[in-house]
Design brief:
The chain is an alpha+beta fold. About 65% of the residues lie in helices and about 5% in strands. The chain folds into four domains: about 30 residues; about 100 residues, 3-Layer(aba) Sandwich (Glutaredoxin), CATH 3.40.30; about 140 residues, no CATH class; about 100 residues, Serine Threonine Protein Phosphatase 5, Tetratricopeptide repeat (Alpha Horseshoe), CATH 1.25.40. A hairpin with a 5-residue loop joins strand 3 and strand 4. It is globular. The termini are far apart.
């Protein structure tokens, strides 16, 4: 190769390299919020507890336009990404999924684009909607993590006050300060909250300061804060309005998680009492979904069936989403032909209301396999489900496995 050719090759290489550098510099940095890609909500909570980290949960569902706006316009912001990636485990929660159906109804998710913030102890601390800007996301995060308040001086003060509280030597004012510092550092504070409230007379509990204290520590239903609130619920409703209902719902959710983890019927009964006495909107619905979550997760399926049959009869005969999801749950949880036939009625009613699709046909085919002796109908519906999956661009593996099983092993009703 002559010198001219060598020089030309070098020139072309330098031009190409320069072009690559220019394109790289022109492309926006991908440093927005980084979301955990694997696992489900339970594995997220395990990671939160193991790593003692905050969690940020972006709730979404099929066809949620505001959710897509957040994903495309606000989450890629570099300042938002730096703050959230440094302080939170970030997770997307699709509330359309069957396993999240109870939680979605308890926390009223799936109607607006809701953002959930969890403490390192797994407790839900904040739910917010209608986020409009990157500044909103940043202020929400800072409100939750309280970085400015987590100073060395406050940590030392907390250690002194907590030691005095443990030895029952703290004054009411010191207990009051200790409770707030425990909250700042995301430490369990129920015992100190109860200690403080026990020092207050009935008259003192009506002060603005104590009303604010009771509201601030309404994180669960296990402390005496909720008892004092229920004793004067109308006053609190007038003072805080609809925000109090949201606060109470979060408290119920936090206690429900503990009740399930501990299989604690006493906490569960306390939750039921609070729902009955708090004058919350849609009390009957809330009671059902809280019970359903508890019974499902503690594998009390007979109790789940009793409350579900009653709820559908009175509230759900015209709700195709509810009927479809409950039919699927009966397929997963129940083992008797009567329950399978009931579930088949529900999914048929859902199809009658708003038509068939992949999911409904898949559930129907599975239930027919449990109840239909000749299998022909089950196979035909499974094949319809496969066609719908292709149209809806859904992975066909699940329905392919069902078709294979029907063809090779027949129906279980035989």
């Amino acid at each position: 190769m002559n010198n001219c050719s060598t020089s030309l090759m070098r020139l072309l290489f330098l031009c190409a390299f320069s072009l690559m550098l220019f394109l790289a510099a022109s492309m926006p940095l991908q440093n927005g919020i980084s979301f955990q890609q694997e696992g489900n909500f339970e594995t997220l909570m395990e990671r939160v507890l193991n790593e003692q980290s905050f969690a940020f949960v972006h709730t979404t569902w099929n066809g949620c336009a505001p959710c897509n706006t957040l994903e495309q316009s606000l989450y890629p912001n570099p300042d938002v990404g730096r703050l959230y990636n440094a302080n939170f485990i970030n997770f997307r929660l699709n509330v359309d999924r069957t396993e999240y159906f109870n939680i979605a109804n308890i926390l009223n998710l799936g109607k607006n684009a809701a953002l959930l913030y969890f403490e390192p102890n797994g407790q839900l601390i904040k739910k917010t909607e209608n986020v409009r800007s990157a500044d909103d996301l940043i202020s929400n995060a800072k409100e939750v993590i309280l970085l400015q308040e987590k100073t060395v001086a406050n940590r030392q003060k907390l250690e002194t006050l907590y030691r005095k509280a443990n030895n029952e030597l703290a004054s009411p004012q010191e207990l009051y300060e200790c409770a707030y510092l425990l909250k700042t550092f995301n430490q369990p504070c129920s015992d100190v909250v109860n200690q403080y409230l026990q020092t207050q007379s009935d008259e003192e509990l009506k002060s603005d300061e104590n009303i604010g204290f009771i509201y601030d520590f309404l994180d669960n239903v296990e402390t005496k804060a909720v008892d004092h609130l229920l004793a004067d619920i109308q006053h609190y409703k007038l003072k805080y309005g609809a925000v109090l209902n949201e606060k109470l719902t979060i408290a119920l959710y936090n206690s429900l998680r503990i009740a399930i983890q501990q299989r604690d019927d006493k906490i569960f009964q306390k939750i039921m009492m609070v729902i009955h006495n708090a004058n919350l909107p849609h009390t009957e619905d809330l009671l059902y979904f809280v019970k359903a979550q508890y019974y499902e997760n503690t594998k009390s399926f007979d109790k789940f069936a009793v409350i579900t049959n009653s709820y559908v009869k009175h509230k759900g005969t015209d709700n195709p989403q509810l009927l479809t999801i409950l039919a699927e749950k009966y397929f997963l949880y129940m083992n008797d032909s009567g329950s399978f036939k009931q579930a088949l009625e529900w999914v048929n009613q859902a199809i009658k209301i708003d038509g068939a699709n992949y999911r409904k046909n898949l559930i129907k085919a599975r239930l027919l396999r449990k109840t239909d002796k000749n299998c022909e109908t089950a196979l035909n519906v499974a094949l319809e489900a496969r066609t719908a999956a292709e149209i809806e661009n859904i992975d066909t593996k699940e329905v392919d496995d069902l078709i294979f099983s029907i063809k090779n092993y027949g129906c279980e009703a035989r």
